[in-house]
Design brief:
Blueprint (H helix, E strand, L loop, with lengths): L1 E2 L3 H11 L17 H7 L4 E5 L8 H12 L4 E6 L4 H9 L4 E4 L4 H12 L7 H13 L16 H11 L4 H8 L3 H15 L4 H18 L14 H13 L3 H14 L3 H26 L4 H21 L7
Parallel strand pairs: 1-2, 2-3, 3-4
Helix pairs in contact: 2-3, 7-8, 7-9, 8-9, 10-11, 10-12, 11-12, 12-13
Amino acid sequence: MVADSSRIHTQLLSEALQRDPELDVVSWNADPRGLLAAAMAGDVNVLAVSSALDGHPARGLDTLRELRAACPGIRAVVLLDSRKPEAILDAFRAGARGVFNRDSSIEMFCKCIRSVHQGQIWADSADVALVIEALASAPRMRLPAADGVNLLSKRECEAVQCLVQGLTNREIAERMGLSPHTVKNYLFRVFDKLGVSNRTELLFMTLHQGSNAEDAAAPGPAATSPAGIPAAASLAALLKAAEAGAPHAQLSLSQAYWARRTEPADLVRAYMWHLVATKRAHEGGQFIAKQMTPKEIAEAEQQALQWISRLKKVFPLPDPV
């Protein structure tokens, strides 16, 4: 699948690749908002994605990070307009298995696609040297343990605090005075530093560390988690957001109670908030469906089934305990 910086570039590059009998190019509507769903639903092996999409310089890399978390089996080649070192490093940090410069030929691009599909890394010697130098000069990262959140900057900790309270990226952006795009980049850096892949895993880590801190603390001032979030407040803040009617907070609270399960009532609370979130989501779905045609509804339902099928393979439900 090709996702170039514009609709016409995507079409031209796709048509050029289709001339290679060894490549089967999956078509899509060239809408960046649906790229992730289209890649997962289209049985794609390799995604060739521009670092810039829809006029945004880094949207392609943001999409690649999301794809890497949701469907790690898809390998990606990032199309670069620049040979700047930071552009190359950012592509590999986002999960690219190859970087390709537009100055090269279509024949070489086809070879790049086939090599990445076979499990190889595609980069010229200068790019490889750049990556090795970056690894050699970077400070050694510790594996996130009980004090893993200490790796975060002050602003990253603020973003984590907002996330624990059940805020969306847009709400976090408004509170911190940032753009939603900047908040998304903050959270991706947090995920990389802490070794988690999504908001739910980060929430569980925060609640778990807060609970450990609370257990280990001596009588006195209230214990806090390594992120500076009061241990008891992590769950309480999420509860407040859920009670205010935020469906995403209700679902996160259900998952948090399920992860904790320190008392029998936690299981009841987990299922109760799951039912609340499910009902709210169903009501929201009915409202959206009223604005759609039967054909659009059928198309959405088919795409949803494909998503669910793939996600079950990537993120299977845990066995009951």
